[in-house]
Amino acid sequence: MGANRLVLWDIDHTLIETGGVGREVFAAAFHAVTGTPMVRMTTAAGKTELAFFRETLELHGLSPARFSFARFARLMACGYHERSHDLLACGRVLPGAVGALRALARVPGIAQSVLTGNARPTTEAKLKIFGLDRHVDLDIGAYGDDDAVRAALVPIAQRRAGRKLGQAFSRDSTLLIGDTPADVIAGRDGGARVIAVASGESGLADLKEAGADVVLRDLTDTGALLDAIHTLLPTSA
């Protein structure tokens, strides 16, 4: 049976935490690209890396048009690989994440990928370091270097999955799993069902108010997660 349901995972605070290493890697790449030390940054929660990079440039009085985001993203990925030991020591895979990924991999008809604000090079680095890359098909995901607007990433992933899998994906066959109200809004506005997990800074009430179809405390109850997925993405979709 070919895949006819698409599950897209957010990464940071849904599957992993970087334990402060992410901020340090960002700062080092920012300095390398701009020649300016990073002294301030906005909140990254729910934003694409492209939007976050542009906002940080503007905070430092720098024009985004002057600097290459592609180079910045490559340096970010290199930074994570160079500091992989620090990332493993300070960061972690969140409870239940591995079990959830493995359980979904065994469900017929489901393809797993990511929908993340991270640029693809950063995504590949983080998932590889934590050993999670084997569970998802990164070729059918969408990334923070695809578009600055997170909601625009949903149809990008749907088109990529459609081309590779020979199946059209719509709201009724696409699910986004994330941890912020911005993730919820991106899924809702972009064309996906949404399961929100309160494993980041946002609480259950905030995620429900944002419009999540289902809200879970975390990923530790694999059975509850699978039940929610089967309800939101019925096999006949």
Automatic annotation (TrEMBL):
GO biological process: DNA repair
Keywords: Hydrolase
Pfam family, any one: Hydrolase
Domain of life from the UniProt record: Bacteria
Keyword Lipid biosynthesis tagged: no
Molecular function GO labels: phosphoglycolate phosphatase activity
Gene3D superfamilies: HAD superfamily/HAD-like (3.40.50.1000), Putative phosphatase, domain 2 (1.10.150.240)
PANTHER family assigned: PHOSPHOGLYCOLATE PHOSPHATASE
Protein's name according to its UniProt entry: Phosphoglycolate phosphatase-like HAD superfamily hydrolase
